[in-house]
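2024-03-11 09:14:02 INFO worker-7 job=invfold-0412 stage=load source=structure_tokens
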């Protein structure tokens, strides 16, 4: 029932964003290397994008739609 409530979408998005910020802050606080952490996240994003594009090209349009839904 709450799935159709726009306020739930907004709060859910806010909670996911804050959770990411808290995790990032904890890693930086623990490692004290914010630049290396940012570089690692960027490298992972590039690797994931490259892997996803390869999967999409190999699997076809239907699989591409499913893959895109899983990434989000």
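2024-03-11 09:14:09 INFO worker-7 stage=emit residues=72
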């Amino acid at each position: 029932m709450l799935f159709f409530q726009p306020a739930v979408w907004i709060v859910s998005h806010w909670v996911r964003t804050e959770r990411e910020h808290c995790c990032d802050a904890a890693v930086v606080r623990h490692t004290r290397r914010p630049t290396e952490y940012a570089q690692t996240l960027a490298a992972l994003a590039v690797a994931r994008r490259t892997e996803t594009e390869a999967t999409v090209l190999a699997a076809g349009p239907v699989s591409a739609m499913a893959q895109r839904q899983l990434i989000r």
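2024-03-11 09:14:09 INFO worker-7 stage=report msg="The chain has three helices and no strands."
2024-03-11 09:14:10 INFO worker-7 job finished
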